[in-house]
Task: inverse folding
């Protein structure tokens, strides 16, 4: 027997059900499911997604058996409607159909719908006879020609609309509904001549030709540019294909006892449990969304400002409304989720055209999930899986008031979420001055940021850069700070000198108000109101459930007590990464840091470090205090030293003066620190090998702070000292040895001891490949691992995240890479190394080897799933991502 | 029974043999072996290397049983000499001994020898009585004190030498031998008071104390700084330890029927088969090397300019000489290798003190190996393993005349071997001008080189840089060109402006003569004569044998027909890497290249590329012609485009003028190409994804050249098109697709077809980890792999070879890394990835997947062994390394 490609759905024969989304598409499966539930659904059939696959694998041709199967399915549809005696392609009593696409996942951008298919110059007469309504019939006919010509024949709708407008002008009427039969009749002619003019062919008269044309258009639209774009953005595979649904028409436009509408079983924006929807009397589906007439509320609860004077469905067609209510309740308890339904009332009788899980805001998603648990509709685990972690992220940040108008002047990368307004400034010093002295809100606009800009970023509301990717300095730091950031906005031409911003020829001056939407990547001129979401009881309830389920711990990347506090409030279970160098950029410290870097001898360097010691100790003390009872992973100095030196000539001059050396000497020293590839240069543990005194100072500061805390408050800090950029176990052994000596010295000086561990970041392929030796107690002796996936991705791909923005766009466009590899863990490459390292490490040290991740990807849901799958102990992410990670970790367990 | 630590060697009881080098050290094993051969060797015993290990693992203490064992061994030695009735520590008839160190591998830098141990103020009388020679006795005594004080007690020899000189002055004599008994007697006293003065202790009188002191000194010297340095440089493990040899003294200084000497069984500098040696009458061992008296030739064949007036041993002591000849022949046929022997003649009787495989020059090594095969002493395989591949490298390059004087002013890295002289210039343009216009020989001196310097490097005799490591640009390019290079010579302070070179305060001007020894890394002021070695018949014979044995093919990295020709002469079996970008730097091409880079549109870029096409085609044509019948792997454009742009302001200005754009616009464009980490930036296949037109031009040039060759000469080229820097199979698929289209177009235009393959470099960890997908015919479809171990090492370690020089020194010093990881393949990390990739690739495509290596390490013997072990098909190296690689590949098979 040959393969089956067509599935009927009807009251008598229904060949599919709701579980067959991959085969029948979402729409087809739901129609079959509703049919199985014996709901009033017009009969029809679904051409499966396998036909789409066949179509593209065979030079856009169909399987041989398809014609026969479609014919049989049409016949079956006619049988379902036997009492009406309608037949497809019958001139006397024509069965008209709708043709709709329906992929396994919702896919905007494809061909959507053709209604009233089957009409032609003969069958229009039949329709008039059957409906006794010539106006309705001709209105259906002209709608059909318009839709079909647009989506199947590719004739732009505007031609038809113009003709329609002209006709209304001719007739002196305003609304489509006011056109009489003759006008509609002549419009049908005009429309057909438009088709002939633009396609060179007459409009197809044969209903079968019409049907096959529409089917072909659906399959053809699967790979149209808009659909491709949508799939690319949403990571949907091209392989899944779309199905085609052919369904008997029912009419909402047969008179005033007819209507069409959409409804949600709960409020999709708040999640409140109320039935909510809109409808139009005497209309077909597309009229509701077209916005020509204001839709009416279906009930009291659906009344709003714009529809408050219109009668509700409950009042207008009370019996149909009653049926609708019974039906929505049946649907919700069947699907156990909030439904988005489409219905049509034909001559007072209710028909269901579609049901699907309704889209909802993050707030609604949470409320509905929690409510449904309380209503015992679903269990907690289902509730957890109902909320998407990335949606949650929006909820944690302010967003633009959805009602406000916005003048979007450019789009960049959505580098760090949230929405903020402020005056634009181009210099971090100016930013600081304006904020501190004038109490202004500012947005720092830079070509790209560097560690020298930190103080400006710190005071700014948001950060906007012209260059750099999702993991550029600006993006990473902004996310860490929980600040809104739009990065890599190529349309900006920034002049630091003139203090202006040129966007497509329009010049903006320093001080002008801008608004950034970091969730969307939008740059908006002017000030736009924002709304701050509140974390509801439902949110906390859902989070508690997630915590009960998840196996992965969630820590935070935090460098300051403030960050630590926020993160702890959001549920962080420790610090997974404290970047000590961020403590070095404070203006009063940077001087000592620079003295340290420019020291000519170990002695001189030690003197400069002595000045830094009490400051670092103070930082750690506060951090330990904030995080007491929880582990705090502190990474020793990582960036190359030249990052701490000034680059501008005037700053160099002032530093030279301050240090009492010649500018030339200073420049020479700076130059000697210059590197071709600083990312692969003298940084990380390499600094610890070259200048043990730096790490010794840092370790001393950590342990002194912990000892002090214990003495003063008897609270116990849990420092985990993390050595960055290890490539070989010997580096770790060398550094561990002198660190332990220093720690012993502190213990004996302070006469108190605290627990501590020493471990390493795994951020180089070689570290992953030799993780057994790195963990081995007799060799590297790492007591814990933390994957630094930013660097690991860079070295595994040989790809600089600072430089890749310039060509990754092309890569994604040409489909060479599906997305920027820095966003989610690349499981094939980076993930393989992570797995090798984890297995190696655990083989040597057993399951007690603590393994985590502290790269940017630690807050990415997809990556969290992967981390769970290879058995990590924890993920660490920026404070604002902590709830996202908690939820994603729970979902990973449930998957 | 407790472990055995002491092994006697004597005619009656000999407990070791020559195979026990690890246990007894080289010297001890050879003494035992000679004893087993019944050669006249003074008896003694060896304290094994295990004692050394025990010593360092147990706070410098000995195993408990050692005292007893040593006593027993001394007793055994006395029994061996029963007829003499000598006893150790006997005042009347003292048995004196020598104490020598002896590690499993030859180890300069350790304590060497103490002779005459056992003498004190009592036994000296016994010695006089027995020898009837007071002068000899006192001379032995003062020698013993001097040596012992130096090496065991740490008293500087100079104090004793001063006293000796003073005594000779006092006595009005010139030679030591002229001092009379009383003088020697008083010297002994003086020597002892020197010891007391400098150590605060009296010189040990008890022979047992003396013995244990000497043994302790040997073990102590195992970890002295000189020995540590030697081990580090030569990659010898500290774990192996040293043995101590205690042996009965025989005396070459008991009168004129006594002598001591050294000999080689063949000429160590030419390899000629002639017995060759020197001796001194009435002398002890150290006198021969001390150079106080001119040593005499042992026979006619050993006569040279300085000793031609001295009588030979053959004449002076004919019977002993006859014994020596018999003995050397016996030794050589026993050891089947050229021997370096030490002998002593006491009262006309010959004793052997040592034999070992003699050190020899590369030329001698080859000749001896080949001769011995012809003499049927050894087989071909043994001959192959007798020549060290790195020695061979010297043989292929000119070297400094060993007799010439040289004023070494600085040392750098031996970046590319050979020895050359030339006038120093600091600018590649000047270099070109001087060579072309004035026919001068120049040495190009640069702080570091960049691709812009290529034309200057090309004409220079040698290259000298102040910065950069063994794999810096200068080093890599120089090796590729076969040019001498000393790199990373930190002592040089170069002023481009003043055109001077400052070395430790001494200023050298442009135009002064310098000589570089690239094999040693020496920078020499002035002109030093060089000698060009000739490749002998033995060399070719040995190479042929190597070729019969080896499994790995050897290709060359060559960018020009000249390189290709040299390499083919040296036996290259194809080109493993032709870097197409090197063809771009030619002055007449760089202009088109720059137009291409600065093009605003694809169209403009294509126009510039059209100019390059015929030039590249011409290059390939010549290359194919040179290499016909052999495969030629051509890598498409790899470096980031900004490498081709000028950096100097004046060059920018002239380019702007030439291109008819403003300097500002040009600068802006150049800046926009700037990258933070160009190594991880927009290069390699990423260029091919962004600008397909570039690779299309290159592929067209390659295939057109091959087609043209076929048409004109019917010779078949075997181009292998190599795509660099692949990280994912999709990159390769994308590029392969358009390359194949282009190739098809060429075939149809030219109406001829040629064979070709398309493959990839594996130079990123991700490529190695996903090599299965990269090779899979339905995915990446790579037909061959070539490991780019330079980049692979960089990314695996996260280490830039351009920047690492600044800290790798510290790493090696602190023993964190044993050596620069760019020199030999790091088997733990990089090697693991290579193995993964090879296994992955072969699993998908079977053994026919061609896998090679084309990084710098392809010419490194250690790395070649590794490549053999994981089953690569070929290695590729610079032309001058080809013979080295052939030999190393053969040795890998034999190992």
Result:
């Amino acid at each position: 027997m040959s393969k089956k490609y067509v599935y009927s759905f009807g009251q008598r024969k229904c060949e599919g059900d709701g579980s067959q989304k991959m085969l029948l598409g979402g729409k087809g499966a739901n129609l079959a499911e509703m049919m199985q539930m014996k709901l009033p659904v017009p009969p029809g059939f679904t051409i499966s997604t396998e036909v789409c696959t066949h179509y593209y694998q065979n030079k856009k041709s169909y399987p041989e058996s398809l014609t026969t199967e479609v014919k049989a399915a049409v016949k079956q549809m006619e049988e379902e409607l036997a009492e009406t005696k309608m037949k497809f392609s019958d001139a006397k009593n024509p069965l008209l159909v709708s043709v709709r696409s329906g992929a396994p996942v919702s896919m905007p951008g494809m061909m959507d719908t053709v209604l009233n298919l089957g009409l032609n110059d003969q069958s229009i007469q039949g329709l008039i006879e059957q409906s006794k309504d010539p106006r309705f019939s001709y209105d259906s006919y002209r709608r059909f020609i318009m839709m079909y010509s647009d989506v199947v024949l590719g004739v732009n709708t505007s031609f038809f609309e113009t003709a329609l407008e002209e006709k209304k002008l001719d007739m002196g009427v305003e609304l489509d509904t006011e056109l009489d039969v003759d006008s509609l009749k002549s419009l049908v002619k005009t429309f057909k001549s438009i088709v002939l003019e633009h396609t060179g062919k007459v409009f197809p008269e044969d209903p079968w030709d019409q049907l096959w044309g529409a089917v072909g258009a659906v399959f053809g639209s699967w790979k149209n540019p808009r659909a491709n774009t949508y799939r690319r953005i949403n990571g949907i595979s091209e392989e899944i294909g779309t199905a085609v649904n052919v369904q008997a028409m029912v009419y909402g436009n047969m008179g005033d006892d007819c209507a069409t509408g959409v409804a949600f079983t709960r409020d999709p924006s708040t999640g409140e449990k109320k039935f909510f929807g809109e409808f139009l009397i005497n209309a077909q589906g597309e009229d509701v969304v077209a916005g020509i007439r204001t839709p009416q509320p279906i009930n009291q609860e659906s009344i709003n400002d714009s529809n408050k004077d219109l009668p509700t469905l409950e009042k207008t067609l009370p019996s149909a409304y009653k049926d609708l209510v019974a039906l929505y309740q049946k649907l919700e308890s069947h699907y156990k989720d909030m439904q988005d339904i489409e219905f049509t009332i034909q001559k007072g009788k209710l028909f269901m055209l579609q049901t699907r899980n309704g889209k909802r805001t993050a707030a609604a998603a949470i409320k509905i999930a929690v409510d449904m648990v309380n209503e015992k509709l679903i269990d907690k685990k289902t509730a957890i899986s109902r909320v998407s972690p990335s949606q949650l992220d929006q909820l944690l940040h302010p967003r633009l008031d959805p009602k406000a108008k916005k003048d979007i002047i450019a789009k960049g990368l959505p580098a760090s979420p949230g929405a903020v307004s402020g005056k634009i400034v181009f210099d971090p010093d100016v930013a600081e001055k304006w904020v501190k002295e004038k109490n202004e809100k500012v947005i720092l606009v830079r070509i790209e940021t560097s560690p020298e800009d930190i103080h400006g970023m710190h005071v700014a509301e948001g950060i906007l850069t012209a260059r750099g990717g999702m993991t550029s300095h600006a993006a990473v730091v902004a996310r860490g700070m929980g600040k809104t950031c739009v990065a890599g906005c190529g349309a900006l031409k920034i002049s630091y000198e003139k203090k202006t911003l040129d966007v497509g020829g329009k010049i903006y001056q320093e001080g002008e108000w801008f608004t950034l939407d970091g969730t969307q990547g939008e740059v908006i001129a002017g000030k736009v109101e924002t709304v701050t979401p509140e974390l509801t009881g439902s949110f906390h309830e859902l989070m508690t459930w997630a915590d009960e389920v998840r196996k992965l711990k969630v820590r935070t990347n935090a460098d300051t007590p403030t960050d630590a506090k926020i993160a702890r409030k959001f549920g962080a279970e420790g610090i997974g990464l404290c970047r000590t160098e961020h403590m070095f950029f404070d203006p009063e410290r940077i001087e000592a840091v620079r003295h340290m870097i420019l020291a000519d001898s170990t002695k001189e360097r030690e003197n400069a470090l002595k000045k830094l010691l009490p400051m670092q100790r103070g930082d750690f003390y506060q951090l330990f205090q904030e995080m007491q009872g929880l582990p705090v992973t502190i990474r020793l100095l990582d960036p190359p030293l030249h990052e701490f030196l000034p680059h501008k000539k005037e700053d160099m001059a002032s530093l030279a003066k301050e240090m009492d050396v010649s500018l030339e000497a200073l420049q020479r020293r700076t130059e000697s620190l210059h590197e071709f590839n600083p990312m692969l240069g003298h940084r990380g543990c390499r600094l610890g090998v070259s200048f043990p005194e730096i790490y010794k100072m840092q370790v001393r500061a950590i342990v002194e702070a912990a000892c002090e805390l214990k003495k003063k408050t008897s609270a116990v800090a849990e420092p985990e000292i993390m050595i960055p950029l290890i490539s070989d176990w010997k580096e770790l052994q060398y550094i561990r040895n002198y660190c332990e000596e220093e720690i012993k010295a502190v213990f004996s000086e302070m006469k108190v001891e605290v627990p501590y561990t020493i471990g390493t970041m795994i951020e180089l392929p070689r570290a992953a490949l030799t993780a057994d030796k790195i963990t081995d107690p007799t060799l590297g002796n790492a007591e814990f691992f933390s994957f630094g996936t930013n660097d690991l991705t860079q070295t595994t791909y040989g790809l600089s995240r600072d430089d890749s923005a310039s060509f990754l766009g092309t890569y994604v466009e040409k489909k060479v890479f599906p997305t920027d590899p820095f966003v989610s863990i690349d499981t094939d490459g980076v993930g393989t190394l992570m797995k090798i390292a984890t297995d190696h490490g655990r083989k040597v040290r057993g399951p007690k080897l603590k393994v985590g991740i502290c790269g940017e990807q630690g807050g990415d849901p997809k990556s969290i799933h992967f981390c769970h799958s290879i058995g990590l102990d924890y993920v660490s992410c920026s404070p604002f991502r902590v709830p996202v990670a908690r939820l994603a970790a729970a979902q990973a367990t449930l998957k």
